[in-house]
Amino acid sequence: EPGKPLPRLCGMSRVTNDGFDAPGVTMRDFCRLLSDSLDRTVVDRTGIAGVFDIHLDLSAADLGHPGPSHPASPASPPDAGDILLAVRKSIQKIGLKLESVKGPGEFLVVDHVERPSRN
User: Fold this and answer.
1) Which residues contact 101 (CB under 8 A, 6 or more apart)?
2) High-pLDDT (> 70) share of the chain, %
3) Is 65 helix (H, G, I), strand (E, B) or coil?
4) pTM greater than 0.90 (yes/no)
5) Could you tell me which of 52, 54, 53, 69 has the C-alpha nearest to residue 17?
6) What per-residue confidence (pLDDT) applies to 26?
7) CB 34 within 8 A of CB 42
8) How far is CA 47 from each of CA 27, 43, 89, rounded to the nearest angstrom?
9) Would you say 69 and 53 are in contact if contact means Cβ atoms under 8 Å apart?
10) How wide is the angle at C-alpha 16 spanned by C-alphas 81 and 22, nearest 5°?
11) Three-state SS across 4-47?
12) Which residues are 16's β-sheet partners?
């Protein structure tokens, strides 16, 4: 129904005019949701157990999403560094710290390609 707010769904996030909301999430879920907004994987190393309703003071523009004040423009994609800085500042306000570290990762490497044979 137009104009009616969307329901809050546990484990999912949404960005509204009021900020980034992630209701009913574990720290692991929260990291997964942050990974979706950032250009890197976010890993939970807090050791904090439980389920939380998390609110961050982040706008759609802060996360690089198009909106009325931030129209989509293929010529000027959002800067990943600006998005990361905005997320870091907002996370710090709720007592968490987001830091960049190097670690092992999984990669898919394509080292050879052939055209399929005609049947």
Assistant:
1) none
2) 80
3) coil
4) no
5) 69
6) 93
7) yes
8) 8, 11, 21
9) no
10) 80
11) CCCCCCCCCCEEECCEEEEEEECHHHHHHHHHHHCCCCCCCCCC
12) 19
